[in-house]
Every structure is written in C-alpha cells, then in structure tokens.
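Crash report, auto-generated. Payload:
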Amino acid sequence: MDLFELKTRAAAAIAGTALAFATSAWANPYEKYAGTTVVISWPALAHFNAAEGLLEEFTEETGIEVEVDALQYLRLRDRQLLEMSKEEGDYDIASWVVMWKGEYVSKGLLTPLSQFFTNGSLVDPQFDIDDVADAYLQNGGVVGGKKGYMPGKSGALYGLPFGAETSILAYRKDILEEQGLEVPTTYDELREVMTKLHEAGIPAMTSRGQTGHQVTAGWLLHLAPMGGKIFDDEWNPVINSPEAVKAAEFMRHIVKTGPKGIETFGFGEASAAFLQGDAALYLDTLKIAAMSRNPNLSKVDGKVGFALHPTDVRCGSETGGFAMGIPANSQNKEAAFLLIQYLTSKAGDQRMVELGGDPVRISTLQNNADSFEDYPVVAEQLPCADPDWRPLIPEWNELNIDVLGQALTKVITTDDPIQPIMDEANEKAREIMEREGYYSWAKYRQ
Amino acid sequence: MSIRALSPYFFILPAVAIMVAGLVYPVLQAFYLSLYDWKIGTKFEDAPFVGIRHFIRMVSDENVHESVWVTLRFGFWTITIEMFLGVALALLLEKPIRGASLFRTIFILPLMISPVVVGLIWRYLFDARIGWINYYLGKVGIEPQVWLGNADLAFFAIVFTDIWQWTPFIFIIVIAGLQALPSEILEASKIDGANWWQHILFVKLPMIRSILLIALLLRLIDVFRALEVMYILTGGGPGRATELLSLHIYNRAFETQQLGYASAISVLLILIVFALSFGILVAGNPLKEKSDI
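Recovered output after restart:
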C-alpha cells in the first residue's frame, strides 16, 4: 500500500465517519422524540381498531411510544372537552367527529397545525397535502372559513382527516338480481326499489333511527340531495322547508319498508342489519365497504355492490367521520404531529388500506381501485360531498339532539302529519339561535 | 350545658361532618352551578351569571314536565307491582318447603347484576331484529314488535326490566321481616281460628308494616335516581317516552352541554325526593315505635 492509497483510504474513512455522524443527526427526524409517549383519544370503530397495527409499526420504527384511549364515538366529546380544558392535558392527539370542530376551536382547545407545518425538521417534504381528499381536509380539519365551518379564505387548518367519510350506496347484488331490480341512481328509483323489495317480503334499506343524533344523521343523508339545508345564509332555520319535509317523509318510508327496529338503530345496529343480511340496501358512510369485507362483522362479503349516493334535485353526499389534531394543552405536540403525519402520509394511508381501514388520499384510492370495488365509486362521489351538509357550529349539538332528534323521532314513530312537526322544530331552532346571538347583526342593521 | 348533655353531639359529629362533606357540599355546589351558564371546555370564571333564569326556564319547560310525569308513572307502576310481587313471593317462600333456599337464591340473582349489564341483557332481549322475545313471540304466531322504538312498548320495557331487577329487593327485605316475627303471636292467631288470608292480612302484614314502609321509601328514592338501565336500554327514547328525570338531567348536562340548566333541574330532583321521603316518614315513621321489630 503506497502512501497515496493510504491517504485516500484515510480520507475516505474520515469522510465516511463524518457522513455517518451527519446522517445520524439529520436522517432520523424521530430520534429527538424517541422514548416519549403520545396519548391518543379516538373512537372504538373498525377503522381505528385497524389503525392500532399501524401504531405498533410507528413505535417500532421511531421509538415514540403510543397509548390509545378508545371510547364509543359519541362519548369522546365529554372526555376530550374535560381533558383539553385542563392546564396540562393528558391527550396529545384528539380525534373528533367533524361536527365538534367549531366548538373545539371556538373554545381555544386546539393547536393550529401551521405551527408545525412551518417547522422544516418536522414536515416530511414528501407529505403532499394536496393529495389528501379536499372534501375530507376541509370538512374535518379547516375551521373558520365561510360560515365558520365551510372552506373559505378565513379558515385555518386544525386537523388532518383520519377515518373521514362520505356516503355511498351499498346494495346486495344477489337480492337485486334475484328480484330483477336495477341499481337505483335517483331517489325516485330508490323509493320504487324499496317498495318492491318490501312487497317481496325483503327488508329494504337500513338506517339509523334512534332518538337524538342518530335519527338526525339518517335524515340529513337525504336532505342534501333533495336540495334542503338547515339554515339559509342569514342563519334562519329552514328545517320546515318543502325539501326538509320531503326528506322526513322519506325517512318514514325507510322505516316502513326497512328491517324491524330502525327506530332504535344507532350506527352499530344500522350497519349490523346490513352486514348480517337483514337489509338489502345501505345508504350511509363508505365505512360499510371495509366492514363488509371483515369476516368478524359481516356475513355478506362478496355479495355487496357499491354505487353513487342517488341524486334527487342535486348530487350531495355526506361529509362526516373524523379528523385528528393536537390539543392546545398537549405536552408532546411535536411528537404528536409526527404521528399524525405518519398515519396520514402516503405510506401510512396505504398501510391503513392493507390493515382494513379507509384511505383519505386520492392517490391511495386510485392505486387500489382494482382491488376494492368501492374505491372508484368513492373517488367519483367525493366531488359531490357537500361541505354544508350540516352546520358544524357550536350550537349544532343542541339542535341535532334536542330539536331535530326529537322531531324526527316523532316523524318515524307516528303517522302524524309531518309539516307541523317540522314547523315546531323550526321554531325551537330559531329560539336557540336567537339565544346564542346569531341575529344580533341583522337587528343592528335594521 | 353539662358535658354529659353534650357528649351525644360529640359522638354524632363525625357522621354529621361526613354528611356535610359528602352531601350538603355537592348539593350547594349544584345550586351554585345552576346560577351560571357554564359550558365544559371553558373557564368557569368566564361563565355568565344568569341568576334564577334557569329556574324560570325550568318551570315552563314542557320537556321537564314530561320527564317528571314519566318518572311518576314509572314509579307508580314499578313500585306497586314490585311491592305486590315481592311480598307475595316472600309469603310463598317463607315456609320451610323443599328447595326454598335454592328458590330464594335464584330470586335474588337479578339484584346482584350490575345495572349496566341488566340494561345490555334486556336491550338484546327486546331487540326488534335479533331479540329472543320477538323470536319466541314469532314461534307462537305473534308479529314481531319494535319494543324499544315505540313509546308505549318502550315504557313497558323499562317498567318490566325494573320489576325484574328490583322485586328481589322487596322479597329479601320482607322475608327477613317475616322470619323475625315472634312465633307466639302467629300461633295465638291460629289458635283463635284465623284462616290463611286473615292470618296474612291482619297479623303478618301489619306486623311488618314498618319494614314495608322502609322498602317503599328506598324504592321511591331509587326510582328518582334510576339512570343506568334506561340509559343503556333506550337512552330516553323514543322521543322522551322513557326519559326519567335523572336521565333527562344527564342528557341536558352531557349530550347538549347545558350544565347550568341541568344543575337547576337536579335541584328540583333533590326537592322532589326530599318532599316524598319527608312525606312518607311523617305518615308513618318506622323508628317511632321501637317495639315494632
């Protein structure tokens, strides 16, 4: 070995060591947070149960520990509100039903994600937020836009969608074929198919119908395509409009032609009725697709077809499900951001699909279109997802449960005329909005 | 006052202190909260003071009236039937018949089950789609019913479930009372020629009167506290058909986040329970006649 070679080798060795040091300092953005524990509050739903596998992979890869506090999804709000209003909270990530985002932000409980997206050492340059389905991102994560909850220039990002959804129609291919029925594309066709199935002694469509949030969610699914809304642009409630009454009348039709007990069905019962083969149609969240493929939940795998949410005067599917963000009182915000980014990254989204969850990225829907029948349908449905499907204002919970939830129960459990029921509900809604000061600007201008 | 006269007060002091800490303080706190419009997730200091506005709203709130009415109806049916069945069972199983202890054990089983589990068991039994009740009714040719989705049937379901769970409570209290009765009097009434009915109506039942009264009082208070079973079984629905007052308070407080208003209603609940308990104690204080068991 001559001197030159020795020198070269030495130089190479030094350079190699330096590179090794450099890479150990820069190549692993997670290292700084290894050993910390991120606590997540999220719902005990199929998508999130599947995600626990991905959390284990995250811990293995990054050394950041994760603890999950899973609750029945409607019970999350109490717990999260209490936890997030303490000086120092236990939750580092909260996963909320999109309808709570306005309340959380108005109470100052969430951290704006811009705090992290401005930090180059945290953000993966390949994250590509534009690939996240816009309807999901806007509906679950952006707060403060038009009317406070819709997309708009005054909005800011507080969460990323995870377990977000829109609605599609799931149907039993075998039953429709046996009965010689076409897959409905409009509400008129849907109504006719339901009637025919019922006449043939087959429970037609399942739906949520339990008093409170559930029956309202069922009704809202039909309100948007029928052209109805909850409020006009001046916050006047319009839940007694002809469209709203028509949607309520349709709910009554569902109960009369559907499986027994819709009046008591929550999300779990409504899905179970379809998955256990007791209903031919399911018009609600796309989550039904992954659930129908899960042998622990479903007896109908392989018999289910998917189609677009039928249209009436317009196409309008739901915008719901979950988004997750970081409480303002979290003690491990940066590690929490890394986990959220990991779960919603392209690779994470793909892993969620493999684990039996639902994707939030357009590229994931496209890349897996051949494997799952519902993905092309969802991709086609998403542009129709209505951001004004329900008003995600802090007062929504009271309107949803106390006003609409009561009125619609009356609609589906009695044969009373619908218009007076909805008129009364409209009045109650107006009182609440009045109490909360929504009309003070209109009065001021008079 | 002498030390001797003061000493009883000294001995009841710990009990009074615990009562004040565990009972009076929370009640006062509830009253205090009812004067504010506080929302979870905001600072209490920022909550606006609303005075007695919640109480004014409550007085004219149809929903509160309805749930008080539901609670009273629920209390009437459950307590009447439970008292009747509990006493009847106790009278039947009081005698040393073969297997009496086995029956007694079986009868008090429902009492040992946690209310949440009771709610779940009956929710699935009453389920319209997969419930056993509809399944067996179908076997005898009766149309399946939506038990928990129809106002009348759901009310029947919560009454039925309550009777199933709480009749054993009356049963064990009464059977304990019956077994403690002095045999001389019972024998004397037999020698005097009282028949079975007279024996029960004029001898046994009057002698356990104070026990019956205590059982009644406890059940009455329980009715106003009942929450878990209805919460699981129906959640108060359909509409407000099974929304007992305590469940109404829960729903106002945690479903719609009106904590101040819910506190105002809970003050009403305390007043009602207090009035009822007081009424019963005045009508027949079981502690007045110490000879009575």
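Post-recovery validation: Chain B has 13 helices and no strands.
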